[in-house]
Specification:
The structure is a single chain. The chain is mostly beta strands and 237 residues long. It has two domains: 94 residues; 132 residues, no CATH class. 0% of the residues lie in helices and 46% in strands. It contains no helices and 17 strands. The chain has a five-stranded mixed β-sheet, with no helix packed on it.
Amino acid sequence: MSFYGAVLSASPDLGSKYIVAASSNHKEHETLALWQPGMMSWHVCSGVDIDGPKDLTFFQGKLYVLMRYTPHLFAFELEEDDRGFMVSRVQCCLTELLHEHSFQAGGALNMVVWRGELLLIVRHYDDNYRREHNVLKVEVFALDMSTNPYGLTEIHSLNGDCVFVCTGGCKSFPASTHEGVEGDLIYFVPDVWKPYDTFVYSMRDGRMRPFAANLLPCDFDVPEKNLDFPVWLFPSE
């Protein structure tokens, strides 16, 4: 098994029996795998159609799994006891609703936890997106979990915070706590190890600008075309 991203239900420093959820490549399928300290092997989730690139996050006691290229959002309920944990319920809580907001094939989806809310970040591409990856617009929605399926409310401000979006996951934090980043901006870093979708989006006016990042060649045994992307180390809480 190989992993493309992982999230923890709690910090190991807190002494709790946390759960690790990972997007894994298992037998040529990219699926969901779960693990907990003390387990001898990973538990690979089956029976749910979640094969493909995805975002993962723990939020309000549930594990949320978002498919990146189809408007499907799953909520996993996990129960724990002295023997470990089990998946007690899986709910598909977002499917066709995005079609009301003009989401079509050719878009990309991400999610991020921000100030006690779960946000959905949507990129819309033109008809040539598979070849050019030209982004037409970006939309950000707060998920309303009081309805079934979940509702969407578009937002236009991060209240001075910023968001980083990349293949390994998304992170929001106050821009004022870190030098070099600006508030109300979403920083998109390349996806799938290619320099596509590398831009900065302003929540204030909807403008997009290039990412000012020029990396020098290195001596690693990596094709040159795969060197032209930044690597981000998210700050700890």
